[in-house]
Amino acid sequence: MSLTFINQFFLILYLLVIALMVFQAIFNIRLRLFIWEKPEHAWLSHAPTIYRDPCLSFTILLPARNEEDVFRETIQKVYDLNYPIELMQIIAICRVDDPGTIAEAQAKISELGDQNVQLLIYNDYPISKPHGLNLGLQVARGDIVTIFDAEDEPHPDILNIVNTTMLNEDVDVVQSGVQLMNHNTKWFCFLNVLEYFFWYKSSMHFFARIGITPLGGNTVFVRRELMEQLGGWDEYCLTEDADLGIRLSLAHARMRIIYEDEYVTREETPYTIAQFIRQRTRWNQGFIQILFKGEWLKLQKFSQRLLAFYVLILPEVQALFALLVPVAIVMFFLVKFPVWLAMFTFFPLYCFVLGVCLDLAGLHEFLKVHKRKWRWREALILVLAFFPYQWILSMGALRALYRAMKGTSNWEKTVHIGQHRGRITA
Amino acid sequence: MKQNSQEPEPQHPGDQQPWGPVAGPQGEPVWYPQQSPVMIQRKVVGQPNANAPGGLAGNIQPGSYGQVRPNDMGPYSAPPGASNGSPVQPYPPSAPPAPFIQSAMPMPPQGQAVQPVGTNGADWRRNSAGAAPGGSAFIAQGVSPQATNIQSGPPPQIYNGNIILFRSPNFFLSTVYRPGQRQDPIRKPTGHTVMTPKVNPQQVNRVAISETLLMPNVTLHTTKQTRAIPLPAWLEAIIVFLSLAVTFVAHAYNLFNFPRYELDEGTYMSNAWAITQGLISPYPYGYGHSPLGWMQIAAWTQLTGGIFAFGNALNSGRVLMVFYAVGCALLVYLIMRRLSGSLGAALLALVLFSLSPLSITYQREIYLDNIATFWLLLSIYLLVISNSRLLYIVMAAIAFGICFLSKEVFLVVLPAMIYAAWLHSTKFQRKFTIVAFIYIVLAICSTFVLLAILKDELFPYSWHLPWDTHNHLSMWDTFLQQAQRGQKYGSFINSWLVWSHDTVFVISSVAAPLFNLAYGLWNRKHLLFSLPPFKFLNRRLRNATPVPDRHLMLSLLAICFWLLLVRGGQVYPFYVIPLIALIALNAAIALNTILGWVVKLVRFDVVRATLLVVAIATIIAYDIPSAEILFNQDPALAQQQALVWVRTHVPHNAFIVINSYMYVDLRVPGGQGVGNGAPFPHAEVYWNVATDPELYSQTLGNNCDRIDYIVIDSEMGTDIKTNEDHMWLISAALTLSVKRAEFISGGSTDSFDVQVWQVIHKNPVPRSCTAPVSSTGTMDR
What we know:
The complex is a heterodimer. Chain A has helices at about 1-30, 70-80, 100-110, 130-140, 160-170, 190-210, 225-230, 240-250, 275-295, 300-335, 340-345, 345-370, 375-405; strands at about 60-65, 90-95, 115-120, 145, 175, 180, 220-225, 255-260, 265.
């Protein structure tokens, strides 16, 4: 009977999707726990404690757009980094149609009175961060190029650490940790913070092992000659950092990832859900762009290509799974599976609950290293926020798909209000 | 006017070039751009180098000042797109060679103050020079740079305190203008470098005032000790192989005839057979035990080619138990080897475990305890060799979960297992490995409850939940029933008397855990001192460094089991099976430690090994006589003979009340009770006849006359007498029946016989028998 054939087909499809969910959940857990897998992994993200004499020079690019609130502090913080100023070149990058930010930058530059702090103003298209960065690259003179975003708070010793690392270990790229710090301002902040925590502390080392590392958008230190050889950033890509990471992996660049809780660059989460969804839409759309660009297909090993593919489509896959949860619940009540099959369909639920438990453990670890207080109320909010968080992630993914299909690729900027700096409490 | 000079003169600070319009050679107005007074002059001969336009302030040449080419759009071509990777174009090669020319023009002395370009000059000039930093509109394209000599570089534009370092059609770079500062901010190697110190000179101060950075704590308290006495690996392998062979023989000798078949064995074999038929158990499943135990037996029967591959059904199960026992023995050896590092101690543990008379009796029988003990030892072994690797700890958690699903009682060891997992992970990993371990164990345990939920049999029918439509057994009821069981069917005292047959075991089962507990707590006193009553003790004692120690872990494992046995509930003799393994481990490590102290006096480690070998020999010598007694008994022979008798003498549609071990062989074609004939579809286990309403009220109609045959053995007889309220139907039937056959097993210490009784149906009119109160549920232990 064709009816039973269709039934069987859907049944097999359903089971296949369940198996895929299980596999993805277990792999995700493995990624998150990678740094805790063996005792030797503890040293993977270790930063040097004795610094070498400052020798390499840095060009620090500070792209900014509509950052009147925070830009002065940012420039000041970067200027105050613990490193000889004659080895630093700080370039603030603004576009001409952004007079507020330009005024702030100009005021701070005049106040500092140092010719190592420079302002780059551009006027052409595309209006995007990577375009500004590429222009900055043209006038960069330091040995190492790096980027800090307007809301970043780098650790004062970060340049010393990178200098020491580059001299000691002869690597081409150093990615230092980025951490969102406002863990409890909104309900989704807990999971957002933990996402960054697990990503930089653990998952990136796994990627580095395999050989394909999607980089973070800031606190990335790349040798300038290498950047120039690679041709700079992709100006039309919304996630130029991931694209750069793939091209660096293709170029077999030696990468080092440092995550010491003390030395992370501090950032803030988006301060409303709408902002969050926009940020994720941009990231997901960027990933889709990179996916279709096809550079990742040129990676050498199959495991690298598979991992790159996994990372690039992960948001959409997670969206699909999050949407399947109500479907699964409906099917549980309507369709009668044999007992063992029904037990198998509960497997993803077990994996998700394990994810929640590990998130709680991660929250405890995060609070411990940053010397904050553990509150049971916050733990409860984290548990309750787990599934809603997956849903807003899926909204971002779906929105990205929609925009990709429509062809809109303007840069939706995230507003920064300096939450983590304690000035504005959201 | 000097032109094309090859050697530029060094510029002096304070020299100013005129920047007003001056007549050029052709008379056109010449616009001299502002120069910055402090410049690093480069000895540029010929063309300026290609790096120059990359340019920051260091490349800004002083204004030069020769030919004016107002229509010259300047050396800056639009920078290529970012994807092109080439740097900014250098000056066009057609630039005339003279780098810059000192003008002989009169240089009106200028004050130090520089005026912004915007205040002088033509409007078009001002506009093109760039907006005031207030951000007014600035012409995007076609900004013509200062019309100067191309090759000399653009003179720097200064406006409003800022200097433009670099300009291109689509962007420009500016910074503050401070006359006193060097224009070359980034130090470039000049060839005159001194040897800079390798290490930042102020480290000491910096490290002194900065907060202490804690390194991740990855010390693992491993107890893998190097062998004091070197022994080649192949020799050790041979010894282990021989010991396992001895174990195998000890367990397999006379396997099918000793000990007698028990009720539980038959229950599990019939459940295993039911699994192969797609059911969980042949009778309604009551959630007494999770089905994973007999699922493993079912898998074994499939692997070996059928449930009757070894004779009758129970034989097949017993062969599997021998393999589990050998596996357990190997794991005991490996665990002790790893924990103590001593071959002698490991062998001692193995010998204690395998050759004890209790082991030889109970490890042959098809009990879930044997299966669960194997998985428990596997879990402990995986923890012990894990070296704090997450994969091994996860596998240990899975093994422990399977152990629970084989027999739920083993959950009582969970606290000790959590402590073991805690001990075997480094502080750096501890939080996450413990969370993963506990979660995986609980998740696997919960699948048992999930099974009940999915079958809608979690809560009793008597609660009348909305989705309950029919009467059914429930997990809740069974759990309550098991928790409330008293000592009626199996008391601790009786079991203790049975265990006392092995005096070595009972003595060490009390002494060894206590010794290990004391010694372990002494080694890990910091643990104890963290508890409130002891917190006020000597701080020096409290801060003692932890010694790598496993005595406490082993003793806690054994103590957890002891707590289960002495809890005051039902205790059967075979409950001791896991305890045999744990006591073997405890005793071996305790003896090893004690002998280690003795050896410290003698200072000769071979003494310890020799003493261990002596201990092993003693144990073997002690066990062999008891083993001999056991090997020579054949109690199961009677049961098998009864089975064969039933096959040949009982009509196939008769209702037979049997003990469980005959169930499969009578019901399934090919069984020992069936042979090539027809099976007996109405052979039912006596407990189910007594307690299952479907059987006694529907099939039998509460009428004892409907029973045709009763196969009764001494154990069954005892049960029938002690359970009058359930077994009234069968006892009534017995009063109406006559003995047809009797089989007595020879050489047993207690008499064991099997009798076959046939109920005499005097007349066709069924006689009624009194019906007392009934209860539901199957009986299993």
